[in-house]
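User: Please predict the structure of the protein below. I'd like the answer in structure-token form so I can feed it into my own downstream comparison script.

Assistant: Understood. Taking the following sequence of 643 residues as input:
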Amino acid sequence: MKKYLIFILLLLSGCSFFRESATVKPSEKTEKQAEAVFGEIGIVPQPASVRRGGGFFRLNKETALVAADDAARKAAQALNEILFEQCGLVLGIADKSAAANAITIATDADAAEKEGYSLRIEPAGIRIKGTASGMFYAVQSLAQLLPHEPAAEEIKIPAAEITDAPRFSYRGMHLDSARHFMPPEFVKKYIALMAQYKFNYFHWHLTDDQGWRVEIKKHPRLTEIGSKRRETVVAKNYSPYVGDAVPVEGFYTQEQIREIVAFAESKHVTIIPEIDLPGHSSAALAAYPEYGCRADHPYRVQTKWGGFPEIFCPTEQTFGFLEDVLTEVIELFPNSPYIHIGGDEVMTDHWRASAFVQELKKRENLSSEKEVEGWFFRRLATVLSARGKKAIGWDEIVEAGVEADTTVMTWRSAENGLAAARAGHKVIMTPSDFTYFDHPQADPKTEPLGLGGQLSLQKVYLFDPVPPELQNSPEARNIIGGQGCVWTEFLKTPRAVEYMAFPRMIALSEVLWTRQRKKDFAEFSERLYRQFPRLDRLAVNYRIPEPSGLQDRMLRSEDKAIIDLKMPAQSGRIYYTLDGSEPHRGSTVYQAPFILDVEPNRTIELRAKIVSPNGRESAVYTARYFRQPPMLPPVAQIPPRGP
């Protein structure tokens, strides 16, 4: 069962305390120096170790980029791209060291951590050392130390020593392009934003009941027919059904996919394609109905959401067709060790009514349609294994019965991930109540339409992919990471995807990269707000988080309704109303805490909006304050009269 968050996001402001890096004792730094580390070295996700040095490195047009081998040069080129985008500066790249005023990038052949790096910034120069991916991640950290505004002559970068490596090897983000097609250029932007926050896997959901989005040369009707639906249901008007009469179509050509794969590789992101099987196959069966179990069924690309009985029939002809599909998919994604083949929400109505499937059960000694599902999945996993790929499936496959070497992506609950890990599977944690970013971020009344319940930024940040039951257990090693999922039933445009993904994606990046003991939501909030100017420059439609202190309250008769709103520094103005109207720039400006006069048995709704320093407006936030009526005094018991 899905668990839904019912409290409004608390975005605490300021650093509640300074968390020292693992290499520095508290006595070694003053409070002022501590503020400097998180003020100037406000990197997200937080590195394993940060030590603030003295002074600054002054980067200018005379600064040299030194890179001696191919991997280092690629990292240097990545840094130049960022310098040009943020500062309008491009540095020359040399292969020999410079005496001073140089950024030296060097491959660490003896690195203990596969994705680790060291970043040393001194007044005399900057030195980066790491593996190929580690050097790239060091560049992403360095980018966050650059000014938000272009510098005229030189760029001051605070001196520091950073040593870093990720907590998890799998740090993923997902995008559903099946429900609503997302343009190739946006997919690249999404991948680039992932890389900026050190995600390394992009799970690309390419097929579902509502659309088939990947070109398969051998079976062209998959996109000729399966990529097009006549319309989409309006909101959640399922019964009676109301459609919007707007056709939806689009697919990725193989040339476009290869281009996106190459782009992702340059960002150290591996793309995992998903071909959802054996259910969620309406679009495929609309194109090739002969691979379904019912010849008389009116297969079509679905226009509403939910589960559907259309399912691939497990015949030899079907497996031949699916092998063709998977062969071309493998060729398109050569660098991915995984192919995701779904296995979720399989409705077996057509299998139960199929004489062929019932005979298959007898022949293969399968006791139920659920076991047929496991048999189906295992057969395709064997096909992938023979071609050097590992199968990933959603957590239902554990119940269906799959081999222990199959990787499980758990979405229904963390408990299912725990069970899979204990059964010996490698597990990627994606529990919907922590990582489904199509869920609204606050009060659904003021947020875009979404599936599921409320999922706040804070709840995402507090997620730990390793369940408490596995802490200090050898089975914890089976949790290889986690992933945020963006399903697009109600997200029709790239801007809608960005609003739901950001800033929750940034919070998840710290969940997956940073050690649990170093995490603190209040301190993270300070660093998060420092990311927004860069997201503004990249035209990302992120959601501005609520100020802290804005939350529903049930007041007793003696309680005071103190309105005390806080935001991290330089994050804009708060405008609010108390009469139910929508706040705007002409509304009252919040300046200091005040007491709200709430009469007994009454509710006052405070509605607020933030306007950021660059003029960008937030969504409308709400908090309701209800005062209970006074309790009646207890009635004194009257003693009985005497005789």
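That's the full token string. The chain has three domains: 49-164, 170-537, 553-627.
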